[in-house]
Amino acid sequence: MADVVDKTAAAARAAVAVDNADLVLACDAAEAYVRRYLAEPAAGWSADQRLGALLLAVGLFRDKATPGVIEQYGGIERAAYRRATDIQIEQLLRIGRHALPVIG
């Protein structure tokens, strides 16, 4: 997982000028979230798990980097927040409603 975080951070820094502390925080939070739900397999993380962690880190960073996003719903302005994980991330990581059943 650490190699994915390093590559993600390097790619994001190369793409745009960002505050490194915010990027590291988003990557660390995504890694901690994934490790909370999944034990690292002996064979290493699969491609779908790495992609899920990457998408989670990107979403966390994007949310932190764009504060004060306001959307209008029926003429009322409200802050728009996204779910901590979207369905695609849950599917890739097999967490939440997409977790594999555990017997015993």
How would you describe this structure in keywords?
104 residues; mainly alpha; two-stranded antiparallel ribbon; 4 helices; flat
Could you explain the architecture of this structure?
There is one protein chain. This protein is mainly α. Helix content is 56%, strand content 8%. It has helices at 2-15, 20-37, 47-65, 87-93; strands at residues 70-73, 76-79. The two termini are 28 Å apart.
Please summarize what this structure is:
The chain is mainly α and 104 residues long.
The arrangement of helices and strands along the chain is HHHEEH
Work out the strand percent. Answer: 5-15%
Whole-Å distance between the termini? 28 Å
- Residue runs with pLDDT of under 50 for 5 or more positions: none
Arithmetic mean pLDDT: 75
Q: How would you name the oligomeric state of the polypeptide chains in this document?
A: single chain
- Number of E strands: 2
The percentage helix is 55-70%
SSE layout and pairing:
Blueprint: H1 2-15, H2 20-37, H3 47-65, E1 70-73, E2 76-79, H4 87-93
Antiparallel strand pairs: 1-2
Helix pairs in contact: 1-2, 2-3, 3-4
